[in-house]
Specification:
Number of strands: 2
Radius of gyration: 19 Å
Helix content: 55-70%
Strand content: 5-15%
CATH superfamily of the largest domain: Winged helix-like DNA-binding domain superfamily/Winged helix DNA-binding domain
Structural class: mainly alpha
Shape: globular
Number of domains: 2
Strand order of the largest sheet: 1-2
Distance between the termini: 33 Å
Order of helices and strands: HHHHEEHH
């Protein structure tokens, strides 16, 4: 890139960033054993701790009935346990079981391995430094979006992240 070249507009960069991140996420899904929605639920419980199905539905932006089906599937697979809410006996608190923790950790590890192999294959050391710097910029952008937009996750970071 020539130094006298104008920087791309924020709109152009935003479109390219969205497309690139989407393609990256889709390209690693082939390594997953868990479907995206159940994986996101396990990730949320792992990162944020126990919560109700209503809390999960609100964070994920889905109907309670949709979340109830996902919770039933994950509970049946032994990945979640439900216990009483100490503050409201009508509610059930969902927690990640050891099996659920192993399942989400295995998917995370597979995705990281796929990405690490690709980074090793296509980037030299200098390019890895450039990418590391660019990721700090992406983190700043993510934090700004989360802090400035009214959403169930505003100010709390990404809906899912460690996966």
């Amino acid at each position: 890139m020539a130094s006298n070249e104008p920087a791309p507009s924020p709109d152009e960069l935003a479109a390219r960033l969205r497309a690139a991140v989407g393609a990256l996420v889709r390209s690693t899904r082939g390594a997953d054993r868990l479907a995206p929605s159940p994986a996101a639920v396990l990730d949320l419980l792992d990162v944020r701790g126990p919560m109700t199905a209503a809390d999960l539905a609100a964070i994920r932006g889905v109907r309670h009935q949709t979340m109830a089906a996902t919770v039933k599937e994950l509970t049946g697979a032994g990945h979640l346990a439900a216990g009483p809410d100490p503050d409201d006996a009508r509610k059930r608190i969902l927690t990640l079981t050891a099996s659920g923790k192993r399942a989400i950790d295995a998917d995370r590890h597979r995705r990281i391995s796929v990405l690490a192999e690709a980074l090793d294959r296509v980037l030299d050391e200098y390019e890895r430094h450039v990418l590391a710097h660019a990721l700090t910029l992406v983190d700043r952008i993510s934090a700004s979006v989360a802090d400035t937009h009214d959403s169930p996750t505003a100010g709390r970071g990404p809906v899912t992240g460690a996966w």
